Amino acid sequence: MIPAPSVSSAMPSIAVIIVNYGTADLTTAGIESVLARDHGGRRVEIHVVDNASPAGDARILADRHAERGWGDRVRLWPEISNHGFGRGNNVVIHALMNRPDAPDYVFLLNPDAALENEALSILADRLDAMPAAAAAGAGIALPSGRAVTAAFRFPSARSEFAQAMNFGPVTRLFRNRLVPLPPDQPDGPVDWVAGAAVMFRMSVLRELDGFDPDFFLYYEEVELMMRIRRAGHQILYVPSARISHAEGAATDVKSGQSQRKPRPAYWYESWRLYYLKTAGRGGAILAGLAWMVGAALNAPIARLRGQDLRAPKGFFCDFPRLVLRPLLFGVHR
């Protein structure tokens, strides 16, 4: 059993939330990466939501809780249905809000991620020092050690067009609109950060009531951080806080490999919801048409270059059916 760190009651406290779905071994590694560090003496509690994993993860995690002596430092939340990412986190966030001893910060850690250093202390220190900031995201690397993008610009019709077309002159023309920032993005304010490893100020989550429950998976953290920015708060990227991330282990949607694999229907649903909620129906239609036009222009360019199409497999069937048709006929939430 790992001894509990010494705690200073004067220091801000942190709740770590991990939402598990079919990744019990990786979730266990993530839990133990948190327990293995002292977090600068802060009180840290870990909450693990099992989203009704079909392979019995709830029982596996309960057995490991007993075997490894996690005690009251780790609380398990076995759910009977799969809430998705945002709603799964909301299960714990809303419960924490109602506690008289609610933590000062909430740190979301993907089930396929683990701390590589005293990331919680580093992020909390930054938020302590910057009251205008509501969230701080960590730097993320793959298990190989290769850094990946963890800080971003908000998507727009221009970014959808440029990224879908994938043509050098157009990409350069819209380089300041592209969503991904470079993996070596320096420390400082950004539009949004990866939900795989991000710390939020609890007071701001309470103000905004956490994640929008309309989302199942994908874009929910982007929409939440858009609301945070529109409420006048900053989002920080803090790459000195380091996380290792086996990207896509729970969902099989990976940023480097997803272009010619079909996207699940819930991905398109989330894309549509994000634009409806942040840009309105007209803005969502404009962004959708921009992506369709860019993808159509990419087709002959890719053929000439002997490359795969930029769009996901099945895009020209799935996107009109799941996004454009509902938008054009006024189906929205």
TrEMBL record:
Classification via Pfam families: Glyco_tranf_2_3
UniProt xrefs under Gene3D superfamilies: Spore Coat Polysaccharide Biosynthesis Protein SpsA, Chain A
An example Gene Ontology molecular-function term: transferase activity
Top-rank taxon, per record: Bacteria
Keywords, comma-separated and alphabetical: Transferase
Protein's name in the database: Glycosyltransferase
Native organism: Paracoccus aestuarii
